[in-house]
Amino acid sequence: MPKALITGITGFAGSHLAEWLLANKKDMEVYGTYRLRSRMDHIKHIQDDIHMVECELKDPRSVDEMIKAVKPDYIFHLAAQSFVPTSWNAPAETLIVNQIGQVNLFEAILKHQLDCTVQIACSSEEYGQVYAHEVPIKEDNPLRPLSPYAVSKVGQDYLGYQYYQSYGLKTIRTRTFNHTGPRRGEAFVTSNFAKQIAEIEKGIKPPVLYVGNLQAKRDFTDVRDVVRAYWLAVEKGVPGEVYNIASGVTYTIEEMLNKLLSLSQAAITITPDPSRMRPSDVEILLGNYDKFHQQTGWKPEIPFEQTLKDLLDYWRARV
Ligand SMILES: C[C@H]1O[C@H](OP(=O)(O)OP(=O)(O)OC[C@H]2O[C@@H](n3cnc4c(=O)[nH]c(N)nc43)[C@H](O)[C@@H]2O)[C@@H](O)[C@@H](O)C1=O
């Protein structure tokens, strides 16, 4: 049976991808990496159907042993330090986890001479400073990263390109724009606002919702559409290539907040919280996904309103 390995299976996208593979690729064995301190709540419901392997990506020996034991046919490399604000507080850790972690993975694949396809979770943050005439953003747009996180993803992206060119490692780079849905980490804006609304509805917190920069524009895709794209990337994508995964629609964070508020009866006051502002924030992300659509037929299917409703209901069931 072919084997799919998901680094970061205990996380947001990783757990959705595991679910998608189990439901749609019945002939595939699903493996995932975890660290001793990983929280398992996102995968508890599927843990009998997946194989979990302990692995610290920062440690070459740990990665080597994991790759030798699993020998995957497909790797979805989703594990990362993925929160932009954390990357200003911990830039070195962000670079080590994201870039050195990926080098360790690549080197182990080469050492054990695996003929596997590797999807790399790159990011729209790599585009960073985007000018008005450059949207919707295509893959050949200049990369002008605006945070240590974004730089770490540029590094992952170019390492993917370089290992393909140098060694023929079958890497496929996906530059995914913002994505959300149930299980989104509560630090990220959609989830943070949805959780605050759910807490206000339950009377756990006063009716004041704290916000950062509401003028930023983001292109949101449902995580369930994104993980379907990750499978199509390894199935139909061209090794060495890079693809945008986006919805092709952009909203200000304020518009997104208003959509969430319209799903609630609660009377809520919006209050700026200066600690939520960033040293530099990407002003606009709006992706062109034509290249990926032409290669794989993928397009997003779940309307943003449905995604936000599912996210709010997720928090309503948890607070
Ligand atoms: C593609 C990319 O997508 C994500 O990165 P992100 O765009 O930084 O995501 P976020 O949800 O933290 O912020 C979105 C926007 O919302 C603004 N914003 C306003 N008020 C709050 C607020 O209260 N909290 C947060 N977190 N953001 C706020 C904030 O300033 C920013 O403009 C990651 O998955 C990343 O891994 C990735 O690759």
From TrEMBL:
<dbReference type="InterPro" id="IPR016040">
    <property type="entry name" value="NAD(P)-bd_dom"/>
</dbReference>
<feature type="domain" description="NAD(P)-binding">
    <location>
        <begin position="5"/>
        <end position="310"/>
    </location>
</feature>
<comment type="function">
    <text>Catalyzes the conversion of GDP-D-mannose to GDP-4-dehydro-6-deoxy-D-mannose.</text>
</comment>
<dbReference type="InterPro" id="IPR036291">
    <property type="entry name" value="NAD(P)-bd_dom_sf"/>
</dbReference>
<protein>
    <submittedName>
        <fullName>NAD-dependent epimerase/dehydratase</fullName>
    </submittedName>
</protein>
<dbReference type="GO" id="GO:0008446">
    <property type="term" value="F:GDP-mannose 4,6-dehydratase activity"/>
</dbReference>
<keyword id="KW-0456">Lyase</keyword>
<dbReference type="Pfam" id="PF16363">
    <property type="entry name" value="GDP_Man_Dehyd"/>
</dbReference>
